User: What shape does this take?
Amino acid sequence: MDSCGLTAVLLEAGLVGSGTVYGVLSDKNYNPAMVCHKTVLGSLKRLLIKMFLEHTGESKFVDTLPETAKVKLKEMKSSSTKDKLHDCIIDPDITGYIWRYCQFREEVANGEFGKAAQFWMPYMDAVWLALQLHESVKRNDFLLYAECILCMPDLFFSYTGQKYARYMTMFSVFIANIDQTHPGALELLKLGAFSVVRSMVPGCCTDVDKTMEETFMKHSKSHGGASGAVIAGITRNNAAYQRWVLTTHEQYLAATFAMAHIFIR
Assistant: This one.
């Protein structure tokens, strides 16, 4: 998204400062990047809906729906339940309206409403795919996770991430055939083998590798270069290696005392 105007949009909107905008666009600053991309995605969706209303000649979204369908949507908005969602999905007027919006969206993606709108459609799809992958881990939804992994190689290949595209394709094939190659593994994955629950808050699971980094692997890291490239940072810097040797055992000893409820002042 470099040199397309996104930098100016983020700065003018006050989402980031001039010193952090590069970290957001290069995805070095994870949390600010997630906030910025979600905000821009929501704004682009509103602009797309505005274009759809202008194209159909409506004054409001779902303005042409009959009153019975509008009542169902209002009830689902006030109290979102599975039954109310099902009532909206099976309603032919609502599904027909959604289908017309999806067709309009495809027309925009094909360039029928200008090159600028067509340019931003892949960006919206990419951000939405990243959010779905994030949701799959948070909710421990393995099927959604597998679907996102299957869609991502094309994205990485299009934006010069050939190594990611190559290995994610192999990983997708492995996931698709895991029930045949490793019988019973699929059920274990669905139960929560790829995410960790660290709190009682629903839908707040954490990646396994992130949990490892934040727990027991944190004790073996050093400020002298062990973070990031762990082995390379220690072996290439003698001072960092000496610091790691002298201090690591104290961290393990403190953790052992804490497990035994022994507190030394």
Observations:
- The first helix runs from residue 6 to 12.
- The chain has 14 helices and two strands.
- Residues 215-265 form one domain.
- The mean pLDDT is 83.
